[in-house]
C-alpha cells in the first residue's frame, strides 16, 4: 500500500485501497469464499495501516497539532472499535449472517474515520509541519507497515511506549502464522 510520498499522501493512498477492498467484497456473491479471502486481505491492510498511524502519526499529532491530544484520542478510539470488529470478523464464515453485518458496520466505521482524518486531521497536520517532517513521517509509516501485525490484537496497547515494544513481536508471529496458513 502507499505511493512512497509524504505521510498524508501515503495514508490517503491506504484509504483508497481500503475503500477498493470494501467494494471488491461487496461485488462478490453473499456467501462466496472470495469474500473471506478479501476480508482477510482487508484485515491485514487495515491493521497495518492503523498500527503505522498509532506508532508514528498520532504521537506527532499530539505534540504538534493544535488540540492534537483530543484528535489523537478520538482516532485511537476509532481504531479500537474497528479492531474489535476485525477480531469478530476473523472467526466468522461467509455463510454466517453476522459476516455481512460486520463488514457493513466496519465499512461505516472506516469511512467515518477516513473522512475525519482527511478533512480535519490531515489539513491541520499539513499546516503545522514542514514538508521535510511530513516526508520523514511517510518513510516511518512505510517502514512500520512492513513489520506490523496482519491480524487484530485488541489487547495490545495502542500508545507508546508499550506499543513500540510489543507490536513488532505480534507482527512477526502474524507473518509466520500467515506463511504457515498459505503453505499448508
Which radius of gyration do the C-alpha atoms yield?
Answer: 16 Å
Mean pLDDT: 85
Number of helices: 6
- Low-pLDDT windows of residues: 161-180
Descriptive overview:
The chain is built from six helices and no strands. It is an all-alpha fold and 184 residues long. It is elongated, with a radius of gyration of 16 Å. Mean pLDDT is 85; it is low at 161-180.
How is this structure best summarized?
By secondary structure, this protein is mostly helical. It has helices spanning 7-27, 33-64, 68-90, 97-128, 131-147, 162-183. 80% of the residues lie in helices and 0% in strands.
Topology:
Blueprint: H1 7-27, H2 33-64, H3 68-90, H4 97-128, H5 131-147, H6 162-183
Helix pairs in contact: 1-2, 1-4, 1-5, 2-3, 2-5, 3-4
